[in-house]
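User: Here's a chain of 398 residues. Predict its fold as tokens.
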Amino acid sequence: MSPTSSPASGDPDALFGLTELLGAEDRSEDPAPADTPEAPGDTPDQVSRLLDVREIYAEPAAALSPRGRQVIARFPRARVLEVGSHWNIPHLHGNEGNADRWVRVKRQTLVLGVRKSLTVRPNGRSADWIAPGASNGCAMSCAYCYVPRRKGYANPITVFTNIGDVVDALDRHITSLGPKQEPTQCDEERWVYDTGENGDCSVDALISDNTADLIAAFRRWPTAMASFATKYVNRDLLALDPRGSTRIRFSVMPPGDSRLLDVRTSPVAERIAAAGDFLDAGYEVHFNLSPVVLRPGWEEDWAELLRHLDDVLPARVKAQAAAEVIMLTHNRQLHDVNLRWHPRAEDVLWRPEIQQAKRSENGALNVRYRNDVKREGVRRVTELVAAHAPWLRVRYAF
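Assistant: Prediction complete.
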């Protein structure tokens, strides 16, 4: 077998020659089988539970790049398999059998690719602009996540190794805009760029320096700031010195909902407790009340969560905090996938009697709450915020 043969050409177990890639001893011996069950308590810490990478699918240019070499070096036991495209891995994407291995694939598989599209897109909700992402996919397994809808039965992290191209594209865009002339709900003074639309930058930082590079880049752009939402408390980010140029948005929901739906994430209480430390480290700290899932007792549980925020957050966090309220959007294909690996989640996510079809901006057919139901839900959440956390400015709700 040629060390550079491609699975797409008929050999699903083709390996790169790792000596050639890294100047290190060949590590192509297959580790433990990828379908070994994940035993509870078999890892010593949360990072190891999130990532036990055994296979890295890599485009050749991505594997040979400095960032690709960094990722491969961080997972020395993983075998590296060549693919022609990070979007087209036949036995990974579109393989319905992977629905039964949903979490295992996320934990044990990475993909390395070169990002081709470097378009900056307008937004106006979470941010003024959506930056070209430095990753796609996530090691966590939130049952409502929209990212896997386009990938087909598997949603591991794809790391884009050409981070320099992403930073250059942002530099050109920010320079072309000049200073912000009028305030928006995103920020009064600076252009806000969402850097984590299709992933979680806190988890990405466990794998490569892409997140650190983005935070460093925004430090040198006085008219702009980065923004990303996260459900994972990565305290290594506290050392990255953002100097107010990065907004971290901790996503929160009632703990009972989170235990059911936010699979493999940091507990909600831990996310809230970290807010003061991240503010002190130089981040702007906001919150996503997201997603709001309508089920019996939801109003009482959201009221309790908001009271908890009011009780435990330091005054300095409250003084600068703002929130986004995001009602649940679901998807029929994801519903079918969830029935294969986490059917209990669908008891609260899939409620056809109060939901309707919704065509998303990218053309996907999703499911959201009926207009009247959603309107009433938004009204009640904002009333609960006003009653129990009146200091929490709601930037937008939808």
